[in-house]
Amino acid sequence: MALADRLQFLSPSLSSIHFRKPNSINIHPLCSLHYDSFFTSYSSPFTEKHSIQRYQRDQWLYKNQLEQITSCSFPPDSHLNRENNIALQLPELKKLLQVLREKRESEGCSKGKYGPGNVFLVGTGPGDPELLTLKAVRVIQSADLLLYDRLVSNDVLDLIGPDARLLYVGKTAGYHSRTQEEIHELLLSFAEAGATVVRLKGGDPLVFGRGGEEMEFLQQQGIQVKVIPGITAASGIAAELGIPLTQRGVANSVKFLTGHARKGGTDPLFVAENAADPDSTLVVYMGLSTFPSLSLKLLHHGLPPYTPAVAVERGTTPQQRMVSFGHDAFIGLASFIPQSLNCETSK
Questions:
Q1: Is 34 helix (H, G, I), strand (E, B) or coil?
Q2: What angle do CA 74, 265, 255 make, to 5 degrees?
Q3: Is 322 annotated as catalytic?
Q4: Residue of 49, 128, 144, 149 marked catalytic
């Protein structure tokens, strides 16, 4: 696929809507004042999908559109908003690709003779920037382009070098700023132009982060991918709370499960029968909204109703919130037998 075709592939739709040039779209103002009700009580440590901070961070993509941000004329999660948003970004993405290509050629590489750039899948941990690895910080500060998810904390993004370009590709339930296929093509297009591309993910890229899908796609296209692990939410939050994930005589294994159903279904824990193990620590990622049905399923499959458990949101950040369940859940380690940890801070 030619590079120009790939840029067209980055347009709003992969199926029924054909690409249209930006000047043929009636651009609506971007909306930044519409937040999920769950986050209205205090600011989030992460990137909200339509926050002013996000648009200021990515202002190179929008140029003169920032003055429109505070005007909200339609719901921010509409398909139209996503289409318009990507249309605004396309000219600057094309311009950046050309700049990177010319830079490589000016460094002594004949056109078409230089190899592709590097792609790094970088785990940024559960939110606390001090939990980043030294390698992650070094790569973040040397990147040409960084594609970042919603659960990469603002404090981590503050570490990015002054010359880097940021592109938000976050996903929330019911609204994906970029589809996974579009993210794949972005990574490939800029890598082929010789850029150092960093894909920032909350937690660890290979734990419910779809890092494996991105790595497999790029490797099939001949692009070298390097993975820099991050502290996954389970480890970071367990350490923060002083809860061992495994302990001799208490839990002989630990299981990581996703609380999200695939394709928006209502049955999140389809492996509940095997997960309801009283001798294993169960960690559920992204399980806040499905926690009631998840709990009932575990009970149905035999997990004792007195099982101590804790639900954590925004773990390791100053905005961390926690709710514990079960009698004497936090009176000594011995009472935490067996244990369940619900980590909302994940990819």
A1: coil
A2: 120
A3: no
A4: 149
CA distance 253 to 136: 29
Question: Which class does domain 234-325 fall in?
Answer: alpha beta
C-alpha 128/C-alpha 126 separation (Å) is: 6
Sheet with 197-201, side-by-side order of all strands: 165-168, 145-148, 197-201, 119-123, 225-228
- Could you report how far apart the first and last alpha carbons of the chain are, in Å? 30
What would the pLDDT profile of 74-84 be if each residue is shown by its tens digit? Answer: 445 556 677 88
Residue-level length of the chain: 347
Tens digits of residue pLDDT in 245-272: 998 888 889 999 887 766 555 555 566 6
Minimal CA–CA distance to 151: which of 135, 128, 119, 133? Answer: 128
Contacts of 250 (CB under 8 A, 6+ apart): 244, 333, 334, 336, 337, 338, 339
Closest C-alpha among 113, 62, 63, 114 to residue 85: 62
Catalytic residue among 144, 215, 277, 286: 286
Annotated catalytic residue within 49, 171, 201, 297: 171
Cα–Cα nearest to 315, from 247, 231, 250? 231
Cβ-contact 84, 25 below 8 angstroms: yes
Q: 149 catalytic, yes or no?
A: yes
Q: Phi-psi bin for 252: left (phi > 0), alpha (psi -120 to 50), beta?
A: alpha
Question: What is 153-206 written as a DSSP string?
Answer: BHHHHTTS-TT-EEEE--EETTEESS-HHHHHHHHHHHHHTT--EEEEESB-TT
Instruction: Please list the residues that pair with 85 across neighbouring strands.
Output: none
pTM: 0.77
Domain extents in the chain: 79-101+115-231, 234-325
Domain 79-101+115-231 -> CATH class: alpha beta
